Amino acid sequence: MQNERGYIERPFDAGHFFELVPDMLCRMSIEGKLLQVNAAWQKHLGYTSRELLSMSLYRLLHPDDRSSTKREMERQRSGQRTVNFINRMQSRSGDWLWMEWNASPAEDGVVYAVARNITGRMQAARKTRLLTDAFQHCTHGLAIEDPDTRRILACNPAFAGLHGRTVEEMTGLHLMEFYPDSQKDVVSSCLLRSAESGSCKFEAFKSRKDGSLVPVQVDIVFVRDEHGDPLYQIVTAEDITERREAEKALRESESRFRAVVESAPDGIFIQTGDTFAYLNPAALRMFGAAKEEEMLSRPVVDHLHPDFRERVLERIRKLNEERIGLPFPEERRFLRCDGSFFDADVSAVPFMHDGQHGALVFVHDTTERHRAEEERLRLRQDLFQSQKMESIGRLAGGVAHDLNNLLTPILGYAEILDGQFGPDDERLQDIRAIHGAGVRARDLIRQLLAFSRRQSLDFRVLNLNAVVRGFLPLLRRTLPENIAIKEALAEGVVAIEGDIGQIEQVMMNLAVNAQHAMPGGGQLSISTEMVAAGLLPRDVLDEIGPVDCVALSFTDSGAGMDRDTLERVFEPFFTTKEKGSGTGLGLATVYGIARQHNGMVAVASTPGEGASFTVYVPVSSGEPVSSVADAATLFSPPVEGGESVLVVEDSAVVRSFVADALRHYGYRVSEADGASSAKAAIKDGSCCPDLLLTDIIMPGMNGRELYLELRHLCPAMRVLFMSGYAASVLEKEGVPESGVGHLHKPFSVKDLIEGVSGLIAGPGGKIKKPKPKI
C-alpha cells in the first residue's frame, strides 16, 4: 500500500532492529534458558547463536554472581523490572566481562533483557579509584597547583598535614605562602627554571600553621596539553627531618669511623672487585707507599706473595659472589712497593663502598711477632746447641790430649826425616804424605775444640777455588771409587774471608753426606760460581742481606729427600741413618760454619732425584793468601846448640820425640817421666838445666808447681810449658794461656826449636828473655 507521499507502507519489522542493536538483546526463560539472542552476543562472547541457544545463562556467569542473578530472576517472576544490574560473564576466550542488565518483568515465564558490556568502563573506574586512593593515602605530600596563579587546586591529606592544616584549608592557598621570607627568592628562582625545563627539585624549609619550620624536599612537574600549554603542576613535598637527622648521624658516624680508622695502628683497607679502594695511613706504611694514590685501583694480588695468591683469589671470589667474609684471622704474606715482604694476620668482612660490593680488610703486621718467635726459637736452639756442644766439648777435651800426644811425634819425626832425604829419594813423598795427613788430623782436632768452645776463627782472605782444588785429592782418597767427582769451578779468583780449616770441614761433611746418599755409587758435582745480590734465593737474602756472594755447591745423584726431611736436615743430631750409623752433626756443623762466615746454606731436593747443598759466602775484595801448606817448607834450621834442657813428660813417645829433636839440633837433653824424677835429678846434682821443658798436666804435680819448686834450686833456669789440653783446662791448673812460653800439642819441630831458642840463646847459654811471671 502506497501512502500519500508515495512511499510504500509495510508492517513494522522489529527483527531488523534486533540484529542491529550493539547491545546484547535476548529472550530467555525465567530459569535462565536462552531462547533468542542477537548478533551482539556472538561479537562480545565469541559463541555462535546455536551454541548460545543450547546454553543456560548461569553457565556463563561468574560463580560469585550466580546467586545474585537468581535473585534478580525471582524479582522478574514477581513482576518487578530490573534496572542496571551488574554481573560477570565469561567469553569463549576465558575472559571475564562486566555486564550491565536491564530487563522487563516476565510474561508467561519469558524475560526480555538487554546486556551492555561495561568492562572498559569498570576498568577505567578501577584505575581512577586506584589513582584516587594512591593520591589520598600516599604518605608523601601531593598537590595540584594552577601554573598561572600558583594556587593549590587540590592536595592529599599528607600534603595538608605537612603544613599543619586540613585539605580544605589548603585549597586555594598560594604556593609561596608556605616559605619563609629568607627562602622565597631561592624558591622563585627554582620555579622559573622548572617552567623552562618542565621539572625541578629543591630542598627548603616550609612554615606550618603554628609557625614552626619543617625541612622538605620539593619536586615540581609541569603537565602540558598537546599544544605545549601548561595545564597544571604536580607538587610533591616530603618531610626530610628524619633523613637530615640520619645524614647528620651518618656524617658524625663516618667522622668517628674515619678518625678511628685513620688513627688505627693496624692496617685497614677497602677492596672493591680485586683492587684497592681505600687505605688508612697504617696500611700505607705497611706497603711502603707515600701516598694513597700510589695504591688505589691497583690489584690486591699484585701485593701478595706468590705463595698466597691462589688462595686469596678464591677468597676474593667468595667475598664478591657469595658475600662470605673472613671472620677469623689468617696469615698472609704481602709484598711492599719495593719488593720486600711482610707477614700479617688478615681478617675481612663484606662491605659496600660507593655502591660496589667489596670487603673491609684488617691487616695486623706480625713481622715483629715472628721476629720475637724466631728469636725465642733461636735462643732455645742455641741453648739446646750449647748443651749438646758442651757435651761434645767435654768429650773432645778428654780425648784431645791423648790424640795430640800421638800426633806430636808423628809430625815431629816426619819433619826430621824430611831433612834427611834428598829430593830424588822416593821415600820423601811418602814422608811428606804422612806429614800432610798428620797436619790435617791436627787441624781437625783443633776445629773440634774450637767448635765446642765457640772460639773465634782464623779468618783470612782465601781463593775458594784454590781451597777446593787443594782439598779434592783428599776427597778422592776418602770417597769410594764408585763415586765419580766432577768439578766445575768459576773462572779466575773467587775471594772470600774464611777459616780454611772450617771451609775444608764443610767440604768434607758435604762429601760424606753425599756418599751416604749414594750407597751404590753415583756422581758428586762440586762447583763454585759468583752470585749477584739480586739473584740470591729469597730465604738466603732474608738471612744475609743484599750482598754479592760466592756459591759453593755439592750436588749428588742419590736418593733425594722428602719435604719433612728437608725441614729438619740442619737440626743438630737429626739423622736418617740407622741407629748407631751417624751422629746427626755433619750438616748442622755445615750450617753453623756457614753462619759463622756471615753466609747461609740452602738445600734443594726431590725424592729420587738427588740433592744439592749450596753454601753462600759474601765475596771479599781483599787479596787472597796461599791456602795450601807447602810440604817443602818444613823447618830445617842449622844445627847449633849446647844448652841444656830438662824434658819432663809422662808420655814416653812424646818425651822421646822431643828429646831426639832437641839433640838433633845440638841441645844437651835430660829426660824425666814425671815431677818426682825431675826433682830427684836436680837435687842429686846430676843436672841444672838452662831450660825446663815440661808437660802441664801430669800425675801428682803439674808443670807449674814443678817449676815453682825447682827454680829455687836453679835460679837461672827458664821454663817452657807444653800441653794438649784446651785453654780452659790450663786456666784451672793455674797456667795462663798468654804471658808464658807455651807449646800447644801437637807441635812441629819448627815450633819446638823456635820456642826453646826463644828462651835461651846459642852455645853460650845466654838468657834472651826475662824470667816469666807465674
Automatic annotation (TrEMBL):
Q: Name the Gene Ontology biological process terms.
A: regulation of DNA-templated transcription
Which residues does the record list as 4-aspartylphosphate (modified residue)?
A: 695
Catalytic activity reads: ATP + protein L-histidine = ADP + protein N-phospho-L-histidine
Cite the EC number: 2.7.13.3
Enumerate the Pfam families for this protein. HATPase_c, HisKA, PAS, PAS_3, PAS_9, Response_reg
Q: Where is the PAS domain?
A: 18-80, 253-323
Q: Which UniProt keywords apply?
A: ATP-binding, Kinase, Nucleotide-binding, Phosphoprotein, Transferase, Two-component regulatory system
- Gene Ontology MF terms in the entry: ATP binding; phosphorelay sensor kinase activity
Domain Response regulatory: from-to ranges: 644-760
| Occurrences of domain Histidine kinase (ranges) | 398-621
Q: Which Gene3D superfamilies match?
A: 1.10.287.130, 3.40.50.2300, Histidine kinase-like ATPase, C-terminal domain (3.30.565.10), PAS domain (3.30.450.20)
Question: Which segments constitute the PAC domain?
Answer: 200-252, 328-378
> Which InterPro entries does this one have?
CheY-like_superfamily, HATPase_C_sf, HATPase_dom, His_kinase_dom, HisK_dim/P_dom, HisK_dim/P_sf, PAC, PAS
Protein's UniProt name: histidine kinase
Which lineage ranks, top first, belong to the organism behind this chain? Bacteria, Pseudomonadati, Chlorobiota, Chlorobiia, Chlorobiales
